[in-house]
Design brief:
The protein is α+β, with helices and mostly antiparallel strands. It contains four helices and five strands. It has a five-stranded mixed β-sheet with strand order 1-2-5-3-4. It is globular and about 50 Å long.
């Protein structure tokens, strides 16, 4: 059917591509013993709108040092695996940083806002160093503690996370 070549892929087909990417990332993370334990803190959510990948802190296990935007070595490797896989999709991404509600501020005014944005940028740089094309970065956002995962416990470590949001290019826009 010649008209099939001009039709955009269906949302369901694009969603299947994202689900396959998740499986590939999970396999690559699990097959690397150096990052296997921290990779358990990488969560994937595929929806008709796209894919959300959350790198979530836990008690005694985090992607960054406390109050720091410097990635730990394993986190850098995990972002490399994710970045290389997502590069092949060609979808735009938005990278978001989130903190818990524990107040972090320096006399110079550096706060959770700057920390969350700096962590998102650190993740972006790590992905780009591993081959993710900069032109596919649609945005970098710092949310501080405004979008808590665990609202009932604002100090919960899982509120500290970096999210990589991959938009399904065939999803309906609002």
């Amino acid at each position: 059917d010649p008209s099939a070549a001009t039709k955009p892929p269906r949302v369901e087909d694009a969603q299947a591509v994202l689900e396959a990417a998740v499986r590939q990332i999970q396999q690559r993370l699990a097959s690397n013993p150096a990052i296997a334990s921290l990779s358990k803190q990488v969560e994937f959510t595929v929806t008709p709108e796209g894919l959300r990948i959350d790198l979530v802190d836990a008690d005694q296990s985090s992607f960054f040092g406390s109050g720091s935007a410097v990635l730990r070595g394993e986190a850098e490797q995990i972002l490399g695996v994710i970045g290389r896989q997502l590069a092949g999709l060609g979808h735009d991404v938005v990278i978001e940083g989130h903190t818990d509600s524990q107040r972090y501020a320096t006399p110079e005014g550096y706060s959770n806002w700057e920390l969350s944005a700096d962590r998102a940028n650190a993740a972006r740089r790590a992905m780009e160093r591993q081959g993710f094309p900069p032109k596919l970065v649609a945005g970098v956002r710092g949310h501080a503690d405004r979008l808590l995962r665990i609202r009932d416990n604002p100090s919960d470590p899982t509120n500290r996370r970096v999210s990589i949001v991959v938009r399904n290019t065939n999803a309906p826009t609002s």
